[in-house]
Amino acid sequence: MTNRDPKVAPSGKGDSGLAPVSKRRITTIARTLAENPEAVMEILARLDGAELFNLAEAIRQIQRTRALQRGDLDELIAEGFEQGFTSDGLGVDPWIEGDVLVVPGGLTASSRTSHRCRFASIDGTWVWESSELIREDKRSSPSTDGGFRAVALLPVLDGMKIDVVTGKARRGAHNADRVISYEIQGGEMVVVAQRDIKVTGH
Questions:
Q1: pLDDT at residue 1, rounded to an integer
Q2: Is the residue at 141 inside a domain?
Q3: Does residue 13 lie within any of the structural domains?
Q4: Is a pLDDT exceeding 50 seen at residue 18?
Q5: Is the residue at 3 inside a domain?
Q6: Long-range CB contacts (< 8 A, 24+ apart) of 63-71?
Q7: Residue closest to 159 by CA, chosen among 181, 183, 182, 180
Q8: 120-169 pLDDT per residue, tens
Q9: Domain total of the chain
């Protein structure tokens, strides 16, 4: 038994009542987005705040899904460990591989209370705690200093803010020495700030 009114003929549009979008229409929309950005901006300007938020979230979800559906995450992790570290064991700055952000991080220890490290935060949260994290692998440092290396994978999301923090610990006290800040803009990493700092509590 169904809750449909038997007097109403099926519309052929599915349960949502909306006709499926044809591939031809999708192609036309995609061409408009690429060739006439002014028209797109005019349409977006007419949306209210809630509609813009929903559209932005839909785009971010598509970006997340594409990153998760990649079949070469093992290869990206392997590449991260091969190319993602300097000679002193610290991570290089993150980079983009297609729809995935590769984020190396490392720590080299000279004693139980002293070390140097470089890690990234994503939108104000350390990468290993980020809600966007797809995967992170961690390995002991090739040397015998007690350090480690890690490679994290995240989706490339427009507007994502990335802070690469270089710091050190001496006698148990942590200090951040340098921060390079990036933002994902149009699928690219753009430097937005670069500063040397002297703060505790890193």
A1: 40
A2: yes
A3: no
A4: no
A5: no
A6: 63/99, 63/155, 63/156, 63/157, 63/158, 64/132, 64/155, 64/157, 66/99, 66/155, 67/99, 67/100, 67/134, 67/153, 67/154, 67/155, 67/156, 68/134, 68/155, 70/98, 70/99, 70/100
A7: 183
A8: 999 999 999 999 999 999 998 766 567 899 999 999 998 999 999 999 88
A9: 1
Quick count: other Cβ atoms within 10 Å of Cβ 171? 7
In the structure encoding, which two tokens stand for residue 95, read together? 């980079």
* Average pLDDT estimate for 66-83: 82
CA distance to 15, 35, 61, per residue, from 12 (Å): 9, 33, 28
- Residue 184 domain flag: yes
Q: What would the two tokens of residue 15 be?
A: 């349960």
Residue given tokens 């390995």 in the structure block: 139
User: Distance between CA 188 and CA 90 in Å, rounded?
Assistant: 23
Neighbours of 185 (CB within 10 A): 12
The one-letter amino acid code at 15 reads: D
- What tokens does 175 get? 């200090």
What b/e readout covers 1-24, taking b as 16+ CB neighbours within 10 angstroms? Answer: eeeeeeeeeeeeeeeeeeeeeeee
Return the biggest CA–CA distance within the chain: 80
Domain that holds residue 128: 73-200
When comparing pLDDT for 58 and 14, which is higher? 58
Q: What is the pLDDT of residue 171?
A: 74
Asked if 166 and 117 count as a contact pair (C-beta separation under 8 A), the reply is yes
Task: Kindly tell me if the per-residue pLDDT of 4 is higher than 60.
Answer: no
